[in-house]
Amino acid sequence: MQRMDGWRERLGAGLKGLAMAGKNPWGGSGGSGDDGTPGNDGEGGGSDSSGPRNPWLPGGGEPGKRRSASIEDIFKSRGPEGPRRSGGGGGQGGGGFRFPERPGGKSWVPVIIGGVALVWVAVTSVHFVQPGEQAVVTWLGGKYSHEFESGTNFTAPWPIHMVEKENVTQVRLEEVPGTKTEKLILTGDQNLVDLSYLIRWNISDLTLYKYQLSDPRNALLEIGEAAMRAAVARQDLDSVLTGAGRAEIEQDVRTAMQARLDAYRSGISVQGIEINKVDPPSRVEEAFKDVSSAQQDADANINRARAVAQQVLARAQGDASEFNDIYEEYKLAPEVTRRRLYYETMEQILSKTDKTIVESGNVTPYLPLPELKRRAQAQPQAQGQ
Question: How far apart are CA 161 and CA 141, in angstroms?
Fold first, then answer.
């Protein structure tokens, strides 16, 4: 349509120019001839065989002959890139690109197409499955066909057979609830903790993993959260925070998750659960720190009291043992043991007093020997000053 519009515009411009110049493109410049065509300047009505040629005939036509241009002549005079030009190299202005031919004049196109097809079949039919990988083969990308183990395997070319490979020995990690995200879980004593944990898992059966569940990873996360909440609900706050119950929680979660995933035939194996963080909720963290500090002080006081009690108990046990030994000796010689106990007791008592008592009829009953000793020591010091 664009070419036709351009042709019409050029035709209108050419006719307008000729009309303004007073020239007739079909022959003379005026009048009418015998055949009804315009004449030559009104000087006679005969036809002028030597007049201008028809501009719509390619090549100018034969001299002396005039005829109307047909629509085929008009389109033959234009090529795909514009009007054809005569002359130079065969008379039609140079031809387009032509593919090289084989010896004998045959085309190379079938050979090239066959070679590409062979390469395509070779590339898409041979599959190398690495150790630790499994591959699933499907018909036309939809229906399950069979499964490949590690090694070199062959299938029909793509897209008849499509192969999906996965590493089934690689341990994958899922962090719940992710970084900078709070997950509050209720403990058995009705307290909340912010808990994050890590799930380590791998693929145990690639066929079940691909086709049994619509979203196996999301199912793994949902089952893990349900198992974790159930396990934490069986523990109190102190055991969860102090780590005493973490090992039990991790084992319970792993066992519960594996049982549920096997029931769903998910093709997933849970390798382990690891609790990363257990903190109080951020809104009550300061109050919880105060409570924790008070609890630590109470524990320290309890420990000190227990240490004192152990010391007193050990002393009492030692005294009791000593008494038992003395009693055994007393039973062997009561009089001697009684007298020895009396002397030892009086020695302990009198050694702590300043009074000295002497039992004699010719000596003063009270002799302040310690006082006299102190006075004797004080006199040399006073003389020295």
Answer: 7
